[in-house]
Amino acid sequence: MSKFVDVYLLPIPEKNIPAYKTMATAASKVFLKHGALRYREYVAADLEVKDVVPFPAVVTLEPGETLVYAAVEFESKEARDSAMEQIMKDPEMCAGMEGEMPFDYKRMVYGGFEILVDA
After folding, report:
1. In this structure, is the dihedral angle defined by the CA atoms of residues 24, 29, 32 and 37, taken in order, positive or negative?
2. Which of 2, 55, 75, 107 could form a disulfide with 114 if both were Cys (CB 3.0 to 4.6 A apart)?
3. Long-range pairs for 17-26 at CB < 8 Å and ≥24 separation?
């Protein structure tokens, strides 16, 4: 059985990064509590690349926005499916989703991936 990773790509206003970090840090604890093996989030630091398709050519960024990339690893797709049911019902997660979000979740790019190479 292959490990499974959920990947998120979020366009987010740069000014909202501190609030997002607070929210993501709290969410990471809930994900780990319910079976995630690893939880990482990255903020873009170099999007001006040449000779390949840069992220902003695929994900439209508005002025003042940047990208956050998140990867959450699980033992398997089945483990992820089970964990996500628990995560979405967890009171800590629900509390963290109240109020205004620091990003527009409708613009979030998401997908689940099996690990191909793990070196």
Report:
1. positive
2. 2
3. 17/43, 17/66, 17/68, 17/102, 19/102, 20/68, 20/102, 20/103, 23/96, 23/101, 23/102, 24/68, 24/70, 26/92, 26/96
For residue 51, give the DSSP letter.
S
Cα(47)–Cα(66) distance, rounded to whole angstroms? 9
Scan for tokens 């990208």, then name that residue. 67
Residue 70, H or E segment: strand 65-74
Residue reference for tokens 């990064």: 17
Q: What angle do CA 63, 23, 38 make, to 5 degrees?
A: 105
Alpha helices in 34-100 (DSSP H): 55-58, 77-89, 91-96
List average pLDDT for each run of 10 residues in the chain, which is 119 residues long. 92 96 95 98 93 90 96 97 95 78 92 93
